[in-house]
Amino acid sequence: MTNMDGVDFVKDIYPNLSETERVRVDLAAAYHLIEYFQMSDSIYTHISARLPGDKEYFIINPYGTRFSEVKASELVTIDLNGTIIDDPCGMGANPAGFTIHSAIHGARPDVKCALHTHTIAGVALSSTQSGILPINQWSLQFYHGVSRHKYEGIALNLEERERLVCDLGEQNKVLILDNHGLMTMGENVGEAFTLMYNLERVCKVQMSVLASGQPVNTIDSDVCDLTYNQYKHFSEISQRGGFHAEWLAYLRLLEKVSPSYKE
Question: Which of 25, 72, 113, 163 has its CA 20 to 30 A from that of 16?
Protein backbone atom coordinates (compact mmCIF):
# COMPACT_ATOMS: atom_id res chain seq x y z
CA MET A 1 0.00 0.00 0.00
CA THR A 2 1.11 3.61 -0.58
CA ASN A 3 1.13 6.65 1.70
CA MET A 4 -1.76 7.18 4.07
CA ASP A 5 -3.29 10.15 2.26
CA GLY A 6 -4.05 7.91 -0.70
CA VAL A 7 -2.49 10.19 -3.32
CA ASP A 8 -0.10 7.61 -4.74
CA PHE A 9 -2.86 5.02 -4.77
CA VAL A 10 -5.08 7.44 -6.71
CA LYS A 11 -2.36 7.73 -9.34
CA ASP A 12 -2.16 3.95 -9.55
CA ILE A 13 -5.92 3.56 -10.01
CA TYR A 14 -6.34 6.53 -12.37
CA PRO A 15 -3.11 6.64 -14.39
CA ASN A 16 -3.39 9.55 -16.84
CA LEU A 17 -7.17 9.16 -17.07
CA SER A 18 -9.43 11.97 -18.21
CA GLU A 19 -12.31 12.99 -15.95
CA THR A 20 -14.71 11.04 -18.16
CA GLU A 21 -12.56 7.92 -18.09
CA ARG A 22 -12.26 8.19 -14.31
CA VAL A 23 -16.06 8.30 -13.94
CA ARG A 24 -16.32 5.17 -16.07
CA VAL A 25 -13.77 3.35 -13.92
CA ASP A 26 -15.54 4.39 -10.72
CA LEU A 27 -18.93 3.26 -12.02
CA ALA A 28 -17.58 -0.13 -13.05
CA ALA A 29 -16.01 -0.42 -9.60
CA ALA A 30 -19.38 0.23 -7.95
CA TYR A 31 -20.95 -2.62 -9.89
CA HIS A 32 -18.21 -5.02 -8.79
CA LEU A 33 -18.51 -3.89 -5.18
CA ILE A 34 -22.28 -4.38 -5.16
CA GLU A 35 -21.68 -7.93 -6.39
CA TYR A 36 -18.87 -8.55 -3.91
CA PHE A 37 -20.97 -7.45 -0.96
CA GLN A 38 -23.92 -9.56 -2.17
CA MET A 39 -26.26 -6.68 -2.92
CA SER A 40 -26.96 -7.56 -6.57
CA ASP A 41 -30.12 -9.12 -8.00
CA SER A 42 -28.98 -11.32 -10.89
CA ILE A 43 -28.87 -9.03 -13.98
CA TYR A 44 -31.40 -6.61 -12.51
CA THR A 45 -31.08 -3.28 -10.69
CA HIS A 46 -28.69 -0.67 -11.97
CA ILE A 47 -26.20 2.07 -11.21
CA SER A 48 -25.68 5.12 -13.39
CA ALA A 49 -23.25 8.00 -13.53
CA ARG A 50 -23.55 11.36 -15.26
CA LEU A 51 -20.78 11.98 -17.77
CA PRO A 52 -18.86 15.26 -17.51
CA GLY A 53 -19.50 17.84 -20.21
CA ASP A 54 -22.30 19.98 -21.55
CA LYS A 55 -24.32 17.08 -22.98
CA GLU A 56 -26.80 15.34 -20.70
CA TYR A 57 -25.43 11.82 -21.06
CA PHE A 58 -25.24 9.13 -18.43
CA ILE A 59 -23.68 5.68 -18.42
CA ILE A 60 -25.15 2.42 -17.19
CA ASN A 61 -24.40 -1.30 -17.43
CA PRO A 62 -25.20 -3.34 -20.57
CA TYR A 63 -28.53 -5.05 -19.92
CA GLY A 64 -27.93 -8.74 -19.25
CA THR A 65 -24.52 -8.55 -17.63
CA ARG A 66 -23.88 -9.73 -14.11
CA PHE A 67 -22.42 -6.96 -12.02
CA SER A 68 -19.10 -8.78 -11.73
CA GLU A 69 -18.85 -8.79 -15.54
CA VAL A 70 -19.13 -5.01 -15.95
CA LYS A 71 -16.08 -3.28 -17.44
CA ALA A 72 -15.39 0.42 -17.72
CA SER A 73 -14.95 0.20 -21.50
CA GLU A 74 -18.27 -1.58 -22.07
CA LEU A 75 -20.69 0.75 -20.28
CA VAL A 76 -23.66 2.02 -22.28
CA THR A 77 -23.94 5.76 -22.91
CA ILE A 78 -27.51 7.06 -23.14
CA ASP A 79 -29.19 10.47 -23.16
CA LEU A 80 -32.20 11.67 -21.19
CA ASN A 81 -34.52 10.90 -24.11
CA GLY A 82 -33.48 7.26 -24.23
CA THR A 83 -31.25 7.51 -27.29
CA ILE A 84 -28.34 5.09 -27.13
CA ILE A 85 -25.19 7.07 -27.85
CA ASP A 86 -22.69 4.25 -27.43
CA ASP A 87 -23.27 0.55 -26.80
CA PRO A 88 -20.02 -1.42 -27.18
CA CYS A 89 -21.65 -4.80 -26.43
CA GLY A 90 -24.88 -4.18 -28.39
CA MET A 91 -26.95 -5.19 -25.35
CA GLY A 92 -28.87 -1.97 -24.71
CA ALA A 93 -29.96 -0.75 -21.28
CA ASN A 94 -32.54 -2.00 -18.80
CA PRO A 95 -35.81 -0.17 -19.70
CA ALA A 96 -36.82 0.25 -16.06
CA GLY A 97 -33.33 1.49 -15.35
CA PHE A 98 -33.70 4.17 -17.99
CA THR A 99 -36.99 5.35 -16.49
CA ILE A 100 -35.58 5.72 -13.00
CA HIS A 101 -32.15 7.09 -13.82
CA SER A 102 -33.22 9.50 -16.55
CA ALA A 103 -35.72 10.96 -14.08
CA ILE A 104 -33.06 11.58 -11.45
CA HIS A 105 -30.35 12.89 -13.78
CA GLY A 106 -32.85 15.12 -15.55
CA ALA A 107 -34.12 16.71 -12.35
CA ARG A 108 -31.05 16.74 -10.08
CA PRO A 109 -27.89 18.15 -11.70
CA ASP A 110 -26.15 17.81 -8.32
CA VAL A 111 -26.48 14.02 -8.56
CA LYS A 112 -23.55 12.51 -10.43
CA CYS A 113 -24.36 8.90 -9.53
CA ALA A 114 -27.59 7.04 -8.70
CA LEU A 115 -27.55 3.52 -7.29
CA HIS A 116 -30.53 1.15 -7.01
CA THR A 117 -30.73 -2.22 -5.24
CA HIS A 118 -33.19 -5.02 -4.52
CA THR A 119 -31.81 -6.78 -1.45
CA ILE A 120 -33.74 -8.95 0.98
CA ALA A 121 -33.23 -6.47 3.82
CA GLY A 122 -33.86 -3.43 1.63
CA VAL A 123 -37.03 -4.79 0.07
CA ALA A 124 -38.21 -5.90 3.51
CA LEU A 125 -37.74 -2.44 4.98
CA SER A 126 -39.37 -0.80 1.95
CA SER A 127 -42.41 -2.98 2.59
CA THR A 128 -42.93 -1.55 6.08
CA GLN A 129 -44.73 1.67 6.95
CA SER A 130 -42.16 2.75 9.52
CA GLY A 131 -39.23 3.37 7.20
CA ILE A 132 -35.84 3.71 8.89
CA LEU A 133 -36.18 3.73 12.67
CA PRO A 134 -33.65 5.75 14.73
CA ILE A 135 -32.72 2.84 16.95
CA ASN A 136 -28.93 2.58 16.63
CA GLN A 137 -25.89 4.64 15.67
CA TRP A 138 -25.78 3.41 12.07
CA SER A 139 -29.40 4.38 11.48
CA LEU A 140 -28.79 7.96 12.62
CA GLN A 141 -26.79 8.70 9.48
CA PHE A 142 -30.22 8.54 7.84
CA TYR A 143 -32.15 10.43 10.51
CA HIS A 144 -32.79 13.20 7.97
CA GLY A 145 -32.66 13.33 4.19
CA VAL A 146 -34.65 10.19 3.32
CA SER A 147 -37.55 10.27 0.86
CA ARG A 148 -40.17 7.67 -0.10
CA HIS A 149 -41.91 6.94 -3.39
CA LYS A 150 -45.11 4.92 -3.66
CA TYR A 151 -44.98 1.69 -5.66
CA GLU A 152 -46.52 1.95 -9.14
CA GLY A 153 -45.45 -1.38 -10.66
CA ILE A 154 -42.28 -2.12 -12.63
CA ALA A 155 -40.87 1.25 -13.66
CA LEU A 156 -41.73 1.15 -17.37
CA ASN A 157 -44.17 4.08 -17.44
CA LEU A 158 -42.22 7.23 -18.29
CA GLU A 159 -44.95 9.32 -16.69
CA GLU A 160 -43.83 7.98 -13.30
CA ARG A 161 -40.62 10.00 -13.59
CA GLU A 162 -42.32 13.25 -12.62
CA ARG A 163 -43.83 11.72 -9.49
CA LEU A 164 -40.57 10.02 -8.54
CA VAL A 165 -38.51 13.21 -8.64
CA CYS A 166 -41.26 15.12 -6.84
CA ASP A 167 -41.11 12.58 -4.00
CA LEU A 168 -37.31 12.62 -3.97
CA GLY A 169 -37.15 16.38 -3.51
CA GLU A 170 -34.39 18.83 -4.26
CA GLN A 171 -31.75 17.80 -1.72
CA ASN A 172 -32.25 14.27 -0.37
CA LYS A 173 -29.82 11.58 -1.43
CA VAL A 174 -31.69 8.52 -0.15
CA LEU A 175 -34.94 7.23 -1.61
CA ILE A 176 -36.97 4.29 -0.37
CA LEU A 177 -38.95 2.85 -3.26
CA ASP A 178 -41.97 1.44 -1.44
CA ASN A 179 -42.45 -2.34 -1.76
CA HIS A 180 -39.52 -2.34 -4.18
CA GLY A 181 -36.07 -1.46 -2.90
CA LEU A 182 -33.57 1.30 -2.18
CA MET A 183 -31.81 4.14 -3.99
CA THR A 184 -28.87 6.30 -3.01
CA MET A 185 -27.36 9.24 -4.84
CA GLY A 186 -24.10 11.10 -4.60
CA GLU A 187 -21.96 13.92 -5.88
CA ASN A 188 -19.72 11.12 -7.13
CA VAL A 189 -19.85 7.34 -7.45
CA GLY A 190 -18.02 6.80 -4.18
CA GLU A 191 -20.58 8.73 -2.17
CA ALA A 192 -23.54 6.88 -3.70
CA PHE A 193 -21.92 3.49 -3.07
CA THR A 194 -20.89 4.26 0.50
CA LEU A 195 -24.38 5.49 1.33
CA MET A 196 -25.85 2.26 -0.04
CA TYR A 197 -23.39 0.06 1.81
CA ASN A 198 -24.28 1.80 5.07
CA LEU A 199 -28.01 1.85 4.30
CA GLU A 200 -28.02 -1.89 3.61
CA ARG A 201 -26.50 -2.58 7.03
CA VAL A 202 -29.14 -0.38 8.66
CA CYS A 203 -31.89 -2.38 6.96
CA LYS A 204 -30.38 -5.68 8.06
CA VAL A 205 -30.07 -4.56 11.67
CA GLN A 206 -33.56 -3.09 11.79
CA MET A 207 -35.25 -6.18 10.39
CA SER A 208 -33.26 -8.35 12.80
CA VAL A 209 -34.25 -6.20 15.78
CA LEU A 210 -37.92 -6.24 14.81
CA ALA A 211 -37.81 -10.00 14.24
CA SER A 212 -36.37 -10.51 17.72
CA GLY A 213 -39.57 -9.26 19.33
CA GLN A 214 -37.53 -7.65 22.11
CA PRO A 215 -38.29 -4.14 23.43
CA VAL A 216 -36.30 -1.52 21.53
CA ASN A 217 -34.10 1.06 23.22
CA THR A 218 -35.10 4.53 22.12
CA ILE A 219 -32.70 7.41 21.48
CA ASP A 220 -33.52 10.99 22.43
CA SER A 221 -34.27 13.19 19.44
CA ASP A 222 -31.55 15.68 20.35
CA VAL A 223 -28.98 12.89 20.35
CA CYS A 224 -30.33 11.72 16.99
CA ASP A 225 -29.77 15.21 15.55
CA LEU A 226 -26.32 15.42 17.09
CA THR A 227 -25.23 12.06 15.67
CA TYR A 228 -26.63 12.87 12.22
CA ASN A 229 -24.52 16.03 12.12
CA GLN A 230 -21.49 14.12 13.39
CA TYR A 231 -21.80 11.77 10.42
CA LYS A 232 -21.81 14.79 8.09
CA HIS A 233 -18.71 16.17 9.77
CA PHE A 234 -16.82 12.89 9.52
CA SER A 235 -17.61 12.76 5.81
CA GLU A 236 -16.12 16.22 5.34
CA ILE A 237 -12.88 15.43 7.16
CA SER A 238 -12.38 12.05 5.47
CA GLN A 239 -11.14 13.38 2.14
CA ARG A 240 -7.81 12.07 0.85
CA GLY A 241 -6.35 13.71 -2.22
CA GLY A 242 -9.82 14.74 -3.38
CA PHE A 243 -11.36 11.31 -2.75
CA HIS A 244 -13.16 9.94 0.30
CA ALA A 245 -10.94 7.64 2.33
CA GLU A 246 -13.60 4.94 2.47
CA TRP A 247 -13.98 4.87 -1.33
CA LEU A 248 -10.22 4.47 -1.76
CA ALA A 249 -10.34 1.57 0.71
CA TYR A 250 -12.99 -0.14 -1.42
CA LEU A 251 -10.90 0.35 -4.55
CA ARG A 252 -7.92 -1.24 -2.81
CA LEU A 253 -10.15 -4.21 -2.04
CA LEU A 254 -11.12 -4.55 -5.70
CA GLU A 255 -7.47 -4.58 -6.74
CA LYS A 256 -7.24 -7.87 -4.86
CA VAL A 257 -10.59 -9.50 -5.55
CA SER A 258 -11.91 -8.16 -8.87
CA PRO A 259 -9.44 -5.98 -10.80
CA SER A 260 -11.15 -6.51 -14.19
CA TYR A 261 -13.48 -3.57 -13.58
CA LYS A 262 -10.85 -1.18 -14.96
CA GLU A 263 -10.67 -2.86 -18.37
Answer: 113
212 by Cβ neighbours in 10 Å (0-12 / 13-18 / 19+) ranks as: exposed
Instruction: Please count the structural domains in the chain.
Output: 1
Grouping H, G, I as helix, E, B as strand and the rest as coil, residue 117 is: strand
Instruction: Decide: helix, strand or coil at residue 83.
Output: coil
What is the pTM assigned to this prediction?
Answer: 0.93
Lowest mean pLDDT among 73-77, 103-107, 138-142, 232-236: 232-236
In a domain, 1, yes or no: no
CATH number of the domain residue 42 falls in: 3.40.225.10
With a CB cutoff of 8 Å and minimum separation 6, the contacts of 3 are none
Mean pLDDT of 145-171: 96
Asked if the model's pLDDT at residue 218 lies above 70, the reply is yes
Adjacent-strand bridge partners of 231: none
Q: How far apart are alpha carbons 40 and 196 in whole angstroms?
A: 12
2 found inside a domain: no
What is the rounded CA–CA span in Å between residue 241 and residue 134?
33
